[in-house]
Write a structure and sequence with these properties.
Blueprint: E1 8-9, H1 10-18, H2 20-27, H3 36-48, E2 53-56, E3 59-69, E4 74-92, E5 97-107, H4 114-135, E6 140-145, E7 150-154, H5 158-177, H6 195-198
Parallel strand pairs: 1-4, 5-6
Antiparallel strand pairs: 2-3, 3-4, 4-5, 6-7
Helix pairs in contact: 1-2, 1-4, 1-5, 4-5
The structure holds iron/sulfur cluster (SF4).
Iron/sulfur cluster binds at residues 19, 21-22, 25, 183, 187, 189, 192, 194-195, 198.
Length: 207
């Protein structure tokens, strides 16, 4: 990573992976619109964004944990990081012992169709790269889906890392050029809070 290149936030990764055009409207065009999905996510994130730390049945749970990865020049905030005692884990001095770490990303819905979940997976992979770097360990990762009140563990492949690298590269390119990416072919728009802003421009879609 070249030090003159712009840092990329985990939130940027998620927006861009969901729809590069949406990312451009928000980050380059400074447009923002909220719908029921955005507001439901905010309500569910109310506790996750509180910056609190709680102890629960021998586990410690921290909310709004700031993380970064210098090698990728990524940064952001974790909804929730769980510390569970484990003799094979890493030393966490403030809790006095060794712990296994799990990143939990809250989602207000249920597991999504593949195209939408790709963005969430890229967001979670960016979180993991940052947390692994900060804590020098291999964090477990999972989504917590509010509609079904269930955790779903996630694992990543080398292809996922390649996909994230491409996204980070494109975000840097677009940030430097100030260009809003076009609407991708076969873009999945259901549930997008930017539809009212974006749809009049639908003619810009790639042929
Ligand atoms: S409406 Fe569709 S094309 Fe437009 S920003 Fe949202 S997801 Fe992208």
């Amino acid at each position: 990573m070249n030090s003159s290149e712009p840092s990329v936030s985990i939130r940027d990764v998620q927006h861009f992976a969901y729809c590069p055009h949406r990312w451009g409207l928000i980050r380059i065009g400074c447009d923002w619109s909220e719908n029921v999905f955005v507001n439901k996510a905010k309500l569910l994130h109310g506790r996750a964004d509180s910056g609190t730390s709680v102890s629960l049945r021998g586990k410690y749970i921290e909310h709004s944990v700031r993380v970064y990865n210098d090698e990728w020049d990524l940064f952001g905030v974790l909804d929730c990081l769980q510390f569970e005692r484990d003799v094979h884990g890493i030393e966490i001095p403030k809790y006095g012992g060794k712990f296994r770490l799990t990143i939990v990303e809250y989602k207000p819905s249920r597991p999504k169709r593949e195209s939408a979940s790709f963005a969430d997976r890229m967001q979670l992979l960016a979180q993991k790269l940052c947390a692994d770097s900060v804590f020098q360990t291999d964090c477990a990762v999972c989504f917590y889906y509010g509609d079904i009140r269930k955790r779903v563990p996630v694992s990543f492949t080398a292809e996922d890392e390649d996909a994230l690298k491409a996204i980070v590269r494109e975000i840097r390119t677009c940030t430097e050029s100030g260009a809003i990416p076009p609407v991708p072919k076969k873009q999945y728009c259901s549930g997008c809070s930017m539809k009212d802003i974006c749809l009049p421009k639908i003619g810009e879609r790639n042929a």
